[in-house]
User: Fold this.
Amino acid sequence: MININNLTKKYGEHVALNQLSLQIKEGEIYCLLGANGAGKTTTINLLLGFTTPTSGNASINQINVQENPRATKHFLAYIPENLMLYPSLTALENLDYFSGIAGKKLSTKELKGFLEEAGLQAEAFDKRITTFSKGMRQKVGVAIALAKDAKVLLLDEPTSGLDPKASNEFGLLLHKLKAKGIATLMATHDLFRAKEVATHIGIMKDGKLRQQFVSDDISLAELEKVYLDTMDYKEILS
Amino acid sequence: MITKTFLKETKELLRDGRVRISLIIVFFLLSVAVWISAQQYQNVNAQYSTAKTAEREVWDNQGEKNPHSAAHYGTYAFKPKYPLSLVDQGVDKYTGAFIFLEAHKRNEAQFSAAADQTGLARFGDLTPDFMLLFIIPLLIVLLGYNGFTKEREMGTLTLLKSQGISQWKWIWGKWMALFFPILLITAILFLVAGILLSNLQDFGVFKWESLFSLFVVYVVYYIIFINLVLLISIKTKKSGISLVVSLCVWIIACLAAPKAASNFAENKYPYPTRQEFTANVLKDKKSGLDGHNPWNKEAKLLEEKILKEYGVDSLSQLPFNYDAYRMQKGEEHQAKIYLKHYNHLKNQYKQQSDVYRNLALLSPYLPTRFLSMAIAQTDYATHWDFANAAEDYRIATQEFLNGNFAKNSEYGNWSYQADAETWKQLPDFDYTPPQLGVILEQNTSNLMVMGLWFLGSFGFLFFIPKNL
Assistant:
């Protein structure tokens, strides 16, 4: 679903992403771990076509992102760290609009179904977004992805700022999406959530992918040690 | 996508308290403006009708009188109030309500509404054209300045882009959401004006096509403003900056440019002062035939010429009253002098208008203002046309009176008195203003400038590459 080959992005002399290559197949959740400035968000922006690579290429569902960015967007959904929706519209109206501009014609019943599937409580469907917590907004974001029938989900720090309960709910939601065959790329700092939801984990530093694991092959403690080691956090390790 | 965006934007607008309040205020002010104008319109027209009938009665019932006395007694040409002045009062307030028509002299229109007002009139009137030309564009600024910047500021732009939104469809959706309430307000105003006017009786000929043309002019004006405001919103990063830039455009387009154009045009092609104008006319009059003075050089030359033409030795042998003939010739000479000097004024006005039209490229307000006043028949061109028609009527009246005098009396018989029924034979002053087709033809350059603004602003909005 997602295929990245030697993707490099430079801003002047600064290398934001250095020859990144990875593949994410249907039903896989790939968590990119790394400190701020490691290149996680740059990777996502390149996949979204928001920025162009200096070299290398990326494809979604076998469509080259750089050559045909609009076509790739038919297959992907994106939930940023702080998902912002229209505050004066209700959850249902936001979902209706965002799925509508993606070309989906859905009935109110179907839209409600997606909100329900995303875990939003029914009494919140007709409430304005302005009253929503971040967790609730993330659920609307997932509903947008579901309504769009996205094959690829790009998540940028989705659990940042969520309380443990909301974070846990979000994790469960990702498992559901995985079961639907959606390929997910998630950039996060959250080792615990990454270990819990990911099928694959990569650790990035200075724009380079330093380590890659199959999630089942590594324990949380080992992951934490490798992460700190990769990040050169010697004081913490000692 | 266009419909979805339109509906979404409309919902957001309706749920925004500031927008609701703005719309209510504009609607209230428009209603008040239309109501005040309708009252004024009816009052002025009633006065016009009464005065016209009363003055004609006075003219018709002069009794037996010397025609030249009647010529000096004079009559009046009343300027009708045109139906569309309900929407745009134009320069009516400053041009005067009637022209006194008398022998030997072309008079200016008198009794302008502005002259009857106090110094408070400097604050301006709440009229529909003020609302249409100034307040609705301001409303467009207030409704549209954050059309695109809010998407950046709220963070929704990223999500929209990730949904694969088509940029031009998105812009169209937002454009329609801004256009629709403006169209609705304007349509209601014009519909109310149309219903009011079509139900008024004996107050001029109201034509729906003229009202519709006026409506189209204003809609195009608003479309240009919508395009400019949305373009600014696309090009700026923050709503605050967008608001300031949009307000600057409004100030320049609606307030500064018209005044600057007016000052520039007046400096480049100044009108003579009233004193200069009167002195110049008097000087030319003195150099020609004076109908009242049989001893001046031109009068003597005319006398020689007419005696030779009729082959007679004395003026009393002529088959008509030579005194009346001379006075008619004097009238014709003076009419030519007035025509020359008024043509100079008209030429200056035309030059000023051309300057305005050229400067109309700086602001869509200028061609809109010109077209609006022209279609409403409240512009200077219509006033000139009326004044010219009144002068033609004055000349024809003098010809009728001098003709009666010459035909029915003998040379030297100043005691001649025309029959009391004579005055009724003078046709009424019946002025028909230029019709819509002629008005539009006369305003081709304004239509073209508006067309340029219309196409140019659309071009900038949709076809200039943007970094959204």
